[in-house]
Amino acid sequence: MSRPPGQPISPEGFQADVRAGLTKPGQKELYSKYLYDDLGTALFEAITLLPEYGLTRADLRLVSQHAGELAAAVRNVSVVAELGSGSGEKAHRILPHFAGRPHLTYCPIDLSGAALVRCQRDLDDIPSLTIVPIQDSYLGGLAAATQLRRPGTSLLVLFLGSSIGNFEPAVAEDFLQTLRRNLQPGDVCLLSTDLVKDLDRMLAAYNDTLGVTAAFNLNLLGRINRELGADFHQSRFRHEAWYNDTEQRIEMHLRSTADQTVSINGQWRVELKRGETIWTESSYKFHTGQVRSMSDRTGLDCEIQWVDQEWPFAQSVLRAR
Prior knowledge:
Elements: H1 11-23, E1 28-29, H2 38-47, H3 55-73, E2 77-83, H4 89-94, E3 104-110, H5 113-122, E4 129-131, E5 134-135, H6 138-146, E6 154-159, H7 169-181, E7 188-194, H8 199-205, H9 212-228, E8 237-244, E9 249-256, E10 260-264, E11 268-272, E12 277-284, H10 288-297, E13 300-308, E14 313-320
Parallel strand pairs: 1-12, 2-3, 2-6, 3-4, 3-5, 6-7
Antiparallel strand pairs: 7-14, 8-9, 9-12, 10-11, 13-14
Helix pairs in contact: 2-9
């Protein structure tokens, strides 16, 4: 899990995607971005505090330990753009190391307006920092942020939380290529990636004992009920997560515990057999060499990699060629 892949969401698009995903032949699926309504976002924030979920703490440790080195690597920066910023907790640990640089602008980019309000409030104590929140998709927001760059200065992009792990590998490379096209040579992207680790630790992160991740996953059905007039009974589904070793990813599913028929807005129906699953999210895991290779193929040089030893997790400083 991570912040949602950034794509604008419309009611019409939501309904079309739900219909396509639940009526397709074979494996039913729903896009993970729809997990993050207001309730889903709150549940995700709770997940990041769970003892089993080490990703966020590893990310925070790395930015705390290496923010000074990052600032030294991007000396002439005028804009820091964070994709999927959430509340801006990680940026709050990075930006003070850029204090004293004239005309520095921070652009938190997120689909959640509530998260952006909180982010602006929490970072307002950093002196000489202009905050320009952008409620948009990752790439739409980045394109807007680049317009704020001062002539002759550089741009720093923060893409943290291993959010790139929610993309299929080919889509991840396409995304980085598009990101690179928004950069000028010398600009930097700080990219976080969760690494392959002990199987039990990976599984526990998505199957916590308190059931918060289960509630997060099941809330997707609740959202479809609320926004599309469906009649899913969450009690007839069970959250499951497992590791697909061949694809190097955690998969989250909702398994139907009974034969059932679900109505969507009274307009169409979905038939689910007992034991059938709806695939809701993928979280790809990486080796450090894979990150370097992927970056190189997309026009980014991996200059530095920091790896957390407590929870194997990497941050890579990628410079645009």
